[in-house]
Design brief:
181 residues; 2 strands; mainly alpha; single chain; two-stranded antiparallel sheet; Arp2/3 complex 21 kDa subunit ARPC3; 8 helices; 70% helix
Amino acid sequence: MKHAMTRPAYQTLLRPALIGLAGVAALTASSHISVPMYPVPMTMQTLVVLMIGALMGPRAGAMTVLAWLALSLTGAPVLAGGKPGLVALAGPTAGYLISFPLVAFAAGFLPKGDRLASHGGRLAGFLGLHAVILFAGWSWLTALIGPEAAFATGVAPFAIGALIKSGLAAALIAAFPRKAG
């Protein structure tokens, strides 16, 4: 009977840790690609949150986003405008940020594969998950500035961006090579 070769524990943990760090770095970079708007800036965060979930899977995707948010709570300038986490999680962006781990988790369940139906399913899923993010942001902003102002400043300006970022995320994932088997 042959015994399977096992990797040392450090090698088993190193790859997921490096992938998680890459996800945190991508989220941080996406935070700093922004268009200043009031009360919420437009960033590339939602694109990266969706891709992290879709590529890493539900648990690893959500944990990566939570690690990024935890890093912001330590005061690291990983959020848009370099805001510390407590300021961002109590200010107008809180609803959006709080939805990110849940959205990354859900994105991990979107269709896999290279068939046209899988690509279409991912695009539809990304659009739906962007709607979840916008609803969460609107809900939080409503408590701060009222429902009409929240929609006018926290949803409407982001609708076209959500459509574009959903399409871009679906296209980028379609371009990633798949392992056989």
